Amino acid sequence: MIQTKYYAIPNAYFANYFKFLIGRVWKILPMSEEDNIHLKDYMESLQRELIGNMNLVEDLKYDGYFITLLNKIEYLINEEYTHDICRKEVLESVSIIQKLQDKYKL
Predict the structure, then answer these.
(1) Which residue from 15, 31, 92, 106 could staple onto 101, CB 3.0 to 4.6 Å apart?
(2) Cα(64)–Cα(62) distance, rounded to whole angstroms?
(3) Backbone angles phi, psi at 105, to 5 degrees
(4) Over residues 13-20, mean pLDDT
(5) What are the E-state strand segments in the chain?
């Protein structure tokens, strides 16, 4: 069970969320390739979701992997970058999420 601010949730629920989160992060790549005008809005929404999770799941507040994931999304939102850099950051972000899954034994 993963303890949240309100109650514990089964590990399987948390595992499903991380699988979903990987998909959300992957979606950044095709949006970047297409120069989608909604990319920044999409990443800001993802960032709000991650911050909400950090507030909901106490352990994530102190998790270096999770904070690094937030930092990578922050960079993509606020800095100029090439598609190659975007691709690198997305791949690293997916790797971080997989490390989080392993860390929490999901």
Answers:
(1) 106
(2) 6
(3) 55, 50
(4) 90
(5) 2-3, 8-9
- C-alpha span between 39 and 66 (Å, rounded): 21
Domain positions in the chain are 9-103
pTM (global) more than 0.85: yes
9 strand-pairing partners: 2
**Given this structure, which CATH class describes domain 9-103?**
mainly alpha
8 A C-beta contact, residue 72 and residue 89: yes
As a whole number of angstroms, the distance between CA 21 and CA 5 comes to 20
* pLDDT classification of 106: cutoffs 50, 70, 90: low
End-to-end CA distance of the chain: 10
Q: Enter the tokens of residue 1.
A: 């069970």
DSSP state of 98: H
52, 21 in Cβ contact below 8 A? no
| Token reading at 25 | 């992060």
